[in-house]
Every structure is written in C-alpha cells, then in structure tokens.
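Let's study a protein:

___
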Amino acid sequence: MTTETVYWNEEMETLPADRMRELQFRRLLDRLAYVGQNAPFYRKKFGATGLEPDAIRDPKDFAEKVPFTTKEELQQERDDTADPFGGLCCVSREDIVHLLRTAGTTGVPTLYGLTEDDLQTLGELSARMWYQLGARRGHTVAIGTFGSWNTFSTTLLEGLRTGGIKRYHFSMPAPGEEVFPIEVLSRWMDIDGMYLSSRPLWQVTQKYGEKLQEYLPNFKYLFMAGQHVTSSLRKGVEALWGAKLFDAYPMTDAGLPSANCTAQTETFHFPEDAFFVEVIDPDSGENLTGTGRVGEIVVTSLVLKATPLVRFRSGDMGYTVTGTCGCGRTGTRLGIAERTAHAIRVGDRTVFSSEVEEVLYGMPEFFLKQYYLVRKREQPQERLVLRVEAPTGDAAQQKLLKEDLISSIQETLEIGADVEFASEGDEKFVAMYKFLRVVDE
C-alpha cells in the first residue's frame, strides 16, 4: 500500500520549530553580510545607523539593532540616484533575467529583479504551496493571470513548472479568454485545478454558474488571490465549482508566497527557511510575533539574490500562529487582518467591506453582485452607504430586495444603512484585476 505524498519538501515543511529558528538565524546573519556588502542602499543605511552585522549575536540583537526598510525610503533612493532598483541590486545587472514591479496604487511602481537562481528558488517554494492545495505531479492546472509582471504571478507559474504540473496560462481578466480552458481543453483532458485573481473569479463564476461542474467534472481545487475571502463568498463559489476554494496572501515587494492548505483556510503557510517574518506594533515597534496580537507584518528575504529586502515594513496587518497544522506542516502561519483601506467609520464603529459582503452574499439574489462602500469625505459618517449592482426583477421586486438588504445590514452590523443600486458597468467597481471595495466621494 502506497502513501500519497502530501509535501513537496517534507524536510523543510515539517522541520521542528527549534531547528527552523536556528536555520533562520544563520541565514539572517549571512543575509546582513550579503546586503551590507553588495546593496548600495543597505551599505548606506547600515553605515548611517552604525550597524555592524558581526555584532548581531542573537534574534534579540537583530530586532533591536537592524533598521526597518520602508517603501518610501526605496522610492526616495530611486529618485535621488536614478537607480531603478532603489539601491537594492546585489548582483550584476547582466545577471537579472526577469523584471517585476508593484501595482503602483500609491504612486510610481517599485521595480525588483530576479536572477535565474531566484526563479528556480521561487519555483521550489511555490511547488510547496501548490502541493498544500492538493496539486500533484501530472495534474493539469489552468492559470489565468494578468501577465507575469508581479512576483506572485511569476511565482505561481514557476511553481507549476517545478512541480511537474501541466499548466495552461491564459490572460485574465480579458473577456473570453476562459472559453478555451473551460469549454475546449476540458474535452481533451481533465482540468484538476485553476488559479484566478479576484475579478476574473467573479467573471468566470457568474458566466458559467452551475455549468462549471458540467464542464469540469473532475475539478479538485480553485485558487485565488487579490481579495479577502468571506465565508459567504467561499460557500457560494465552492457550491458552483464543486471544489474547495483556497486563497493566498501575496506580498509583491518581498516576493513572499503563501497560501492555505487542505486542512484549513483561516491562515497562510509560508516558507520560513526562505523568509523571516515578524509582527510589530506599527507605532511603538514592539515585537508581537507569536503573541496572536495583530500588528504590522515585517519581512526579510533570506535566500533571493538579486534585490532582497531586510526588515521590510509591508503596511499590511496580521498575526502569527505557531504549532503543527492539521495538514502536518510545522511552520509558523500568518493570519491576515482586513485592510483599513477596505473600511469606513460609521458613528463610533469601523465597518469593513468584508462584514458587509457576508450579509450581501448571504442573500442569493445578490451573490457575486459587484459592490462598494461609499466613504464620505467627513469621517466618521452617520450611515453606511452601499452601492451594489442591481438584482434582476421588476421595480417592485427590486424595492423589496433593497428593503430586505437594508434590514439585514442594520440588524447584523447594528448601524444605519442606505443601499443604492448601480449599473453593471459602473467604472468605480473595478481597478485592473481587482475590485474596489471602498470608494471616496
């Protein structure tokens, strides 16, 4: 009797915590020496703060003496020196084979690079991630990404290649691109899994609905990123696709790959041997790692060679969970808090878009309807304003549905609420491959 392989790299994925801490610290020391010698940004930064990498003797020293890195610093360095990599590049530029950028939602995109070794490393780390979801060598996965300009899309593709998983890469959210993998390719071979970011997931699910299981009868796993997954969304999507929905927490700047696993979808596994993750109080800098308290996620890349980051302040809020997961993996896991960009203040309460979505998508008539919250210039505002794509039905039916939705929101969230119906083509619903969940007006 053979036992199914559930790990891509069992040694690292099940390494005891004490041995992982030892490995991480050795790599942290090597990393400080590496960037201090090779990256102009860190050579300057360490010199300005008086940091001597040889003086770091334990993790406490690292937390107290090694300075944080912020996106604003890197952008300023880029602007001051005309260095597109902001002083991060540790290798000859001739050795960089792939360029990546951030989305640029807060300004000019930040540029990073990968060497051939980096691509292979990301492939190895991502193969672990795909195996967490149930992907296996020989499977066929359709992967719809908006190009490969960011780290996560590149990482996903490299992981499938490394893992020996057949991939069909198509461009989403370009309309109609999903037809070939779902309606044509599926006639010739089983499609075992699919990756779609948030907006394409909505597009495909809405288009096919219950026909998805007819086209994909042996479908096993659906993977997405780019949006907080609420329980009502997960339940509805899984019912239509006939497969489990997993999601990722991708951090483009640091290149951190992470995902749920077959045992749970509340937290995210990440490769601790390749990334050192801390959680800090964003105001005081207090180390909250391992306490379960929510703080800002800080990431250090331990193995990438081209443009690695040290103690990068992500701006994202989360917490860490320790202990063996139900899947058998022993590493620390990340829990992600909802982003404040997806929240508004109503009276004395902070309301997140995910809370509203739980109510909205819990009503069948509104499932997968596009929506956003209106954030007034003056905060806090007196009432929640939800703008949502109009449901089907005549004026009388829509009036009743609006009243039911308002009642459900007010009862569940205990706030006053107004609902406005909008057309499907409202340009404020989307931004590239993502949905806007809060719009300022």
The chain has three domains: 10-77+266-336, 133-248, 340-440. The mean pLDDT is 92. The radius of gyration is 23 Å. The chain is about 35% helix and 25% strand.
